[in-house]
């Protein structure tokens, strides 16, 4: 089986949709001799910031000399982005070989569990098998959806669980209140295993504290354990100071924009202190160097400086609010802000538009490449202003070309919305614009 054939198999699995539960993946992993039980895992959940926090942890641990695996989702362009060891993606050949190996157990999984495995379950089983065989020292494992019955939650005893934050999302699957969603996400907390959270919402913290208490899991709250202060934004990131109860880190440089990334960095720093106690020792200097080297594509990423083009994968209300907060600060030094946006039908388009509408001068509504795009043009109706402020351009490449042509010196083109859109936009822009 070659890579293209493997992709056909993986894409075909989407017909089973989202089907949460651990029965099928447990059956699959049993047939594979449970590689997840042989890995040292940091399990990372939350609404936003999971991938960024994982990227920061990976950069520092790599700087400290460890062989670090990261499993994240979704990808922007290629499935191989989900499986990374020390910055290197899985090869297409290895991906194809593992898919072929997993196909051989599909029938037995269905016999044991009564259902065929979903796409995410197969991709997650592939991750455990790949990282085990590659003998990583540590695996940074990002939750797919929720926590308690997400496929990644077959890990019985992680080194550390991290819950970045909790806000309203995926209500159809996770619950209609913040407390219900927090309860789902708290499912990655395991007996006597430490947990870190950056959530500062008391309703969320109440749920997490109770779960941690019942399981005798030490709970570390970033807002109590870490002090930080934003100092300045640079052309390529930002400078901040941080200190914990154990250590003062002084001024640190981070190669990502946005105050929310400082919170993610504080979460990573506290997590690294706990991992040091678990035997994964890192120095203050390695933390400093690692944060400078962090790369996390599609998150307030500068694609071009002439014109200034930035892409960001904000795709839920909390993410859009953080993007708007950053843009409001940045707005003073910018001429016109030209927005290119496309969102899926199951996202809150109204809230997204209301966050960004006062901060942008021109809007291009475009269509994400996803069957979940639905009535994508409806997004245009949520933006106010003059009649010619909002343009509807179905083809993303045309929308990007028009936006870049409209931009004059000092203007900014901001591309956001669905991660499906961001991946396609990033590929197109990198192939046509000079950084």
CATH architecture identity of the largest domain: 3-Layer(aba) Sandwich
* DSSP E strands, number: 17
Instruction: Provide the β-strand percentage band.
Output: 15-25%
Overall 3D geometry? globular
Oligomerization: single chain
Q: If you had to describe this structure to a student in words, what would you say it looks like?
A:
With 435 residues, the chain is α/β, with parallel strands linked by helices. The protein has two domains: 3-293, Mur-like, catalytic domain (UDP-N-acetylmuramoyl-L-alanine:D-glutamate ligase, 3-Layer(aba) Sandwich); 301-432, Alpha-Beta Complex (Protein-Tyrosine Phosphatase, Chain A). The protein is built from 16 helices and 17 strands. Helix 1 packs across helix 4. It is globular and about 60 Å long. The two termini are 37 Å apart. The mean pLDDT is 94.
List the helices and strands and how they pair.
Blueprint: H1 3-12, H2 23-31, E1 41-45, H3 50-63, E2 68-71, E3 83-85, E4 88-89, H4 92-103, H5 106-113, H6 119-133, E5 138-142, E6 160-163, H7 171-174, H8 178-185, E7 195-197, H9 202-214, E8 219-221, H10 222-225, E9 226-234, E10 237-244, E11 248-254, H11 259-277, H12 284-293, E12 301-305, E13 308-312, H13 317-330, E14 337-342, H14 349-356, E15 362-365, E16 390-392, H15 396-406, E17 412-417, H16 419-432
Helix pairs in contact: 1-4, 2-5, 2-6, 3-11, 3-12, 4-6, 8-9, 13-14
Structure, briefly:
With 435 residues, this protein is of the alpha/beta class. Helices cover 40% and strands 19% of the residues. It has helices at residues 3-12, 23-31, 50-63, 92-103, 106-113, 119-133, 171-174, 178-185, 202-214, 222-225, 259-277, 284-293, 317-330, 349-356, 396-406, 419-432; strands spanning 41-45, 68-71, 83-85, 88-89, 138-142, 160-163, 195-197, 219-221, 226-234, 237-244, 248-254, 301-305, 308-312, 337-342, 362-365, 390-392, 412-417.
